Amino acid sequence: MDSMDQKLKEFFREYEARFNRVMSGTVETEATANAFASCFIEANPFGVNCGKNDDQFRTVIPKGYEFYRSIGTKSMKIVSLEITLLDNYHSMVKVHWQAIYSKKDRSEESIDFDVIYFVQAIKDQLKIFAYITGDEQGVLRERGLIPG
């Protein structure tokens, strides 16, 4: 297996493990921020957002995790990774996630979704510089996890 493939798999396995630790109550703001480049782009069906990896981002990270806990997110699991090496420094990684939610009636809800990440490797450091998501809020509303 190519060493970059292995590094990317390890990067995303740690990303998954960190999310799950945070859902259990551990705060990992700095580690989460360190997974991103100094600036990054999010694209979804509603547009494109540009972010800076700064103090404001570090303030928003715990709030984002709190949102997921508040809607009953129990865990996130990587089902599969599709890695495309673009050149010696850049990769595209399509991650198929499975999220497990605990609903108010104590039943569990499973939602599968894909996120496409663009990752840059500089001096053995991997950083997400862009990602593409679907309509997450729409799916959460449709499944009754957030108000319509």
Which properties best describe this structure?
alpha+beta
Sequence-ordered SSE layout with sheet pairings:
Blueprint: H1 3-23, H2 29-34, E1 36-44, E2 47-52, H3 55-70, E3 73-85, E4 90-102, E5 108-122, E6 125-132, H4 136-142
Parallel strand pairs: 1-6
Antiparallel strand pairs: 1-2, 3-4, 4-5, 5-6
Walk me through this protein's architecture.
With 148 residues, the protein is an alpha+beta fold. The chain has 4 helices and 6 strands; from the N terminus they run ααββαββββα. A 6-stranded mixed beta sheet has the order 2-1-6-5-4-3. A hairpin with a 2-residue loop joins strand 5 and strand 6.
Summarize the structure.
With 148 residues, this protein is of the alpha+beta class. It contains four helices and six strands; from the N terminus they run ααββαββββα. It has a six-stranded mixed β-sheet with strand order 2-1-6-5-4-3.
SS strand fraction:
35-45%
Low-confidence stretches: none
- Indicate the CATH architecture: Roll
Order of helices and strands: HHEEHEEEEH
Number of helices: 4
User: What's the rounded overall pLDDT mean?
Assistant: 95
CATH top level?
Answer: Alpha Beta
What helical percentage do the residues reach?
A: 25-40%
What Rg, in angstroms, do the CA atoms define? 16 Å
Distance between the termini: 45 Å
CATH topology call: Nuclear Transport Factor 2, Chain: A
